[in-house]
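Deliverable D2.4 — example input (structure tokens):
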């Protein structure tokens, strides 16, 4: 029977139903074909305080060799398009999914791109390659060895309590397993915080154990919190074969009966510099070692922890980090080599798997370039030496109560203007500074502390009472504590999924530390209302460590602190026409950018000017700037041609005035 609708009048869905699907199912088992497969969740865009999710990316057809090994993408177009019209889109998806073959069709035939050879061709609807043909081509063109085939065939762990790997996790797992099957001994995985590094490590270990590629695994971390989280959560399916190393209790003749061993570096090399690992294990005992957070010292040549890795040098060693290449030591690359896979924070946000964030830069009155008045005293009653002070002085070289109060007031005002019950982490210069900030916040939020004394707590390494609150702070169901002040304890490893506000009131010494702190807020919990997070920066460190290639662009906003006559305010990108006949026009917009960035073309170009400006100078240029500085946090406004003020809403297509 002839189709009711002429082919040239059919929609894309009609073409798929009548032509493409029959062509594929005639050559492939239906169970190995999925349609309209969603591969990303869709980016969350921030519009003011609203979070709007875009549609996720979907693939028309995905062809599989096995559950964990897709091999080809097929993109469909209606018959108004040429056969190869969808090939570029199919190639983009195939590159994203790390697949060797991409196809497109309009119902008249197929177009193919082979990533292994670079060849392209077109053929009829009845000539689509069978599963066996495409599999044989893949094995032949990629030089697949029997060991690689055996490792590739091993399925992932699956149960009702686990979820299947996301596309980037699948790539990381498959590339790692494949590299080990090829004989590679040192591997590096770089995955942003919140993307499931430990889950990825578990699936790698599970597949290698089940395929009998390895038999004994050592998982190393530098914090007890990380070890316990891994054992209790992602590695729980292997709990019967897991052992947490205890050098004081374990005996060499009885500790050998497990498959997966967890340990702290500090246990294996004690404070007395004694090599406990050699007392318990022979050099060839472990087949695989996973080094969690390997940027924090395990592979640095000057570190004593490297002795653990060198002692077990015959084992395959996988370094896992949320931080790209180090700049001071270059430890990741120098020891483990180039990453086998990298998935950045920017990619996670673009795909909708991680929470986007915005930055509020706050310039305190006692801040960069501050000079004390004559006779001004510090917190201990000592006169402050007369000199110019910077952000690196406060709470390190000098402690000023007025500044502590000002920072606490800013945090409190922000919470009052948004939500006073959002999980907040305040990173302070020292543990003592964290206690002072906790006390000041408690004073300023007396009404909330009255409801529950744990509204604000200090959680630091030396505070046993504070550390006892950590599990409640991490919980997605417990309401209290709400605010935690800390120094270093919560900067890495602490999986606090509901963090919505990160406050930076410390100097950050490295890109690694900055990225780890950002990672405290990147986890999404949409059902519980967590769609994004905010960074409130009192030390201007976000500018220092901005990394658009990894983090994506920083969206920065001005503080709503009331500007006093003579104080300096920070302009985070004011755009204005550069014309000889005009000064600064009365329209203000605050953006993230660098001084000298140019926007637009021709005579209508705009240049951004970032920096600190005296409020008196700004008011002489445009008196309405006071109005802007006193708007609520996160507000973006500019004046239209009619003289009225409009809120600026940013989206992928640009700016809209509402």
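Example output (designed residues):
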């Amino acid at each position: 029977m002839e189709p009711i609708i002429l082919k040239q009048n059919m929609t894309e869905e009609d073409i798929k139903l009548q032509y493409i699907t029959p062509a594929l199912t005639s050559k492939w088992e239906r169970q190995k074909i999925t349609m309209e497969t969603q591969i990303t969740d869709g980016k969350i865009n921030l519009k003011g305080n609203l979070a709007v999710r875009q549609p996720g990316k979907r693939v028309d057809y995905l062809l599989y060799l096995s559950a964990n090994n897709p091999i080809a993408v097929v993109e469909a177009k209606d018959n108004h398009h040429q056969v190869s019209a969808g090939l570029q889109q199919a190639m983009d998806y195939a590159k994203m999914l790390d697949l060797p073959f991409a196809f497109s069709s309009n119902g008249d035939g197929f177009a193919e791109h082979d990533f292994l050879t670079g060849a392209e061709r077109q053929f009829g609807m009845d000539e689509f390659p069978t599963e066996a043909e495409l599999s044989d081509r893949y094995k032949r063109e990629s030089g697949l060895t029997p060991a690689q085939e055996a490792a590739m065939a091993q399925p992932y762990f699956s149960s009702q309590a686990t979820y299947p790997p996301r596309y980037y996790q699948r790539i990381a797992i498959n590339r790692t397993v494949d590299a080990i099957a090829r004989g590679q001994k040192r591997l590096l995985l770089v995955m942003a915080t919140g993307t499931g590094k430990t889950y990825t490590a578990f699936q790698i270990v599970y597949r290698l154990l089940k395929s009998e590629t390895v038999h004994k695994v050592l998982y190393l971390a530098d914090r007890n919190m990380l070890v316990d989280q891994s054992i209790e959560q992602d590695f729980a399916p292997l709990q019967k074969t897991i052992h947490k190393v205890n050098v004081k209790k374990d005996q060499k003749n009885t500790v050998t009966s497990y498959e997966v061993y967890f340990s702290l570096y500090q246990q294996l090399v004690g404070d007395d510099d004694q090599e406990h690992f050699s007392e318990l294990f022979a050099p060839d005992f472990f087949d695989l070692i996973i080094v969690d957070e390997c940027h924090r010292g395990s592979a640095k040549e000057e570190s004593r922890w490297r002795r653990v890795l060198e002692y077990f040098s015959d084992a395959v060693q996988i370094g896992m980090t949320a931080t790209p290449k180090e700049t001071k030591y270059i430890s990741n690359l120098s020891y483990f080599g180039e990453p086998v896979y990298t998935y950045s924070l920017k990619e996670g946000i673009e795909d909708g798997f991680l929470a986007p964030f915005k930055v509020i830069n706050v310039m305190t009155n006692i801040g960069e370039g501050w000079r004390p008045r004559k006779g001004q005293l510090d917190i201990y009653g000592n006169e402050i030496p007369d000199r110019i002070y910077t952000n690196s002085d406060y709470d390190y070289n000098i402690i000023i109560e007025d500044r502590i109060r000002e920072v606490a007031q800013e945090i409190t005002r922000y919470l009052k203007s948004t939500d006073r019950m959002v999980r907040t982490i305040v990173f302070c210069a020292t543990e003592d500074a964290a206690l002072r900030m906790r006390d000041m916040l408690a004073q300023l939020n007396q009404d909330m502390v009255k409801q529950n004394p744990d509204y604000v707590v200090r959680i630091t390494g030396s505070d046993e009472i504070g550390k006892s609150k950590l599990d409640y702070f991490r919980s997605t169901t417990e309401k209290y504590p709400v605010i935690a002040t800390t120094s270093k304890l919560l900067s890495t490893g602490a999986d606090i999924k509901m963090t919505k506000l990160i406050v930076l009131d410390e100097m950050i010494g490295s890109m690694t530390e900055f990225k780890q702190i950002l990672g405290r807020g990147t986890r999404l919990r949409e059902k519980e209302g967590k769609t994004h997070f905010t960074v409130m920066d009192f030390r201007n460190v976000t500018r220092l460590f901005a990394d658009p290639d990894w983090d994506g662009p920083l969206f920065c906003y001005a503080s709503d602190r009331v500007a006093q006559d003579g104080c300096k305010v920070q302009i985070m990108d004011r755009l204005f026409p550069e014309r000889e006949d005009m000064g600064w026009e009365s329209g203000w917009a605050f953006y993230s950018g660098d001084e000298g960035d140019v926007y637009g073309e021709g005579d209508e170009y705009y240049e951004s000017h970032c920096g600190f400006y005296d409020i008196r100078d700004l008011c002489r240029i445009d008196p309405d700037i006071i109005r802007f500085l006193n708007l609520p946090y996160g507000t973006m406004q500019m004046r239209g041609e009619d003289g009225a003020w409009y809120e600026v809403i940013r989206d992928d297509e640009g700016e809209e005035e509402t």
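The first strand starts at residue 33 and ends at 38.
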